[in-house]
Amino acid sequence: HFTLGAIENRKSKIQNSKMLSQEDNDLLTRTGPGTPAGNMLRRYWQPVALVEELPDNGAPLPVRILSEDLVLFRDDRGQLGLLGRHCSHRRADLSYGRVENGGLRCLYHGWLYDRRGNCLEQPCEPPAKRFCEKVHHPAYPCTERAGIVFAYLGQGEPPLFPSYEPFLAPRSHLLVTKIFHECNYFQANEGNLDPSHVSYLHRQGNVPENLKRPVPGTEGKLPLALYDADGAPEIEAEETDYGVRIISIRKTEEGRTFFRVTNFVLPNMATIPGPMSGDGYNLYCHVPIDDTRHWRNDIVFRRSAPMEPKDIARNQEILDELDENYHPKRNKANRYLQDRESMKTWSFSGMGRIFNVQDTAIVEGSGPIVDRTKEFLGPSDRAIIAARRQLLHAIREVAAGRAAPNTLRNEEKNHFPHLTVVSEVLTDGTDWQAHWKNKLAAMR
Description:
By secondary structure, this protein is of the alpha+beta class. Helix content is 20%, strand content 24%.
C-alpha cells in the first residue's frame, strides 16, 4: 500500500478537488515506523518531553513518540539520553532502571547503557567473551530548546536545529506547556491554519481586559472584537521555503483593514498571534504519540520584553485546565463540561474562555482520524489545501531518497526573518499588499 512507486506515480489531486483521496489521507496520517509519513517526520527534530518533566536527579521518563516506546533520562552527569524502552537482552522496561556509572542500568540483569546506546556492562556475562561489544541499543540524540527536550529519531546525522525566534529567545520571554489530544496530529494542526473559525468557535463576551493586549492600529480593541466584526475574511496562502504563509484580511467597523499573518511550518508546526497580538506569537508543534493520539507542545513567545504578570496569570488559567499529566480536565468523557446556559449569553461554544479547550473539542470530535474523503472544502480553506500539498510533497521527497524540505545543514541559511506573525490594523487607505511587500523586504 505504501510503496515508493505508488507515491511517485500518483499526483495529488487536492489542488483541483474539494476532497482528499483515501490513499492521500492515509499518507498524511499514518506515522508509525516504516510508514512514509513516519519516515518523513523522523527527518526533523521532534519534541519528546518538557524539560520540567526531567529534573536533575529525576527518574527516567517513559515516552511514546511516533508509535515507538522510548525512555528519556539524564545520566549522572546531567546529560540527556533517549533510548529504546525495552532492554536489548530480555526486553525488560528500562524506565524502571537505575541511573548510575555513566548510563542507565536495567534492573533485570544489570546491563548498563550510555546515552549513545553503547552497552557498557553486562555483569551476568563472562568478561572474556566481550559480549558488550556486540550490542548497540537504539538511541537518539537530544537537545533542550525553549523548555522542551527535542530528539532526532531519523537515520544519519540530524539537520541543524531550526533558528526560529522562540528557540532563540531568553527563557523569561517564553511560557511553555503541552496538551494531550485524543486524535491524529495532523487534523489538530489544520485547525491552526484556519483563520475563519476564530470568528465563531472562540466568540465570547465580557473578555477580561487585563488578559489580552489590544491590536496595534486600534483604539485599544482586542482581537476578538475584530474577528467578530468580519466573520468572512479574505484568505491568501503563499507557499514558502518553510511551509505556508497564511494572510487573512478583515474589514473593521471603521472601514479599515485588519491584517493578520500566520504560518504552517513543515512538518508539524504552526504559528498564530496568540495573546501577544504580534509582539511575538504562539508556536505549536503537534507530535504523534501514535496515529490516534498526540501532544501539542505550546510555546508563547513575547519579543519585546519578559512576560508580565498578566501573561503569567493568563497562562495559569490554561494550566488550570490540565491535570498533572497534561491531559485536559474538560474532555470527551465529560463532553468538555459544555454549559449550554452560557451559550445564551456570553459564550458561543459553552466551553469556557480558554481557546485550547474549544479547539480540542472540535478536533477530537472529528474522530480519531478525520475522513477527509467526505469533506467539502471552500475558498476559506486555501491554506489547509496548500499545507496538505506541501506535506504530501515532503513525504514523496523523503520516500524518493531526497532531503526533507525545510531541513538545513548550512548554518548561514539557518535564518528565518521572513517567518513572522503579524496582527495589526492598517491606517485608512493603506493597501495591504504594498504594506506587506514593504514589511517583508525590511525583515529580509
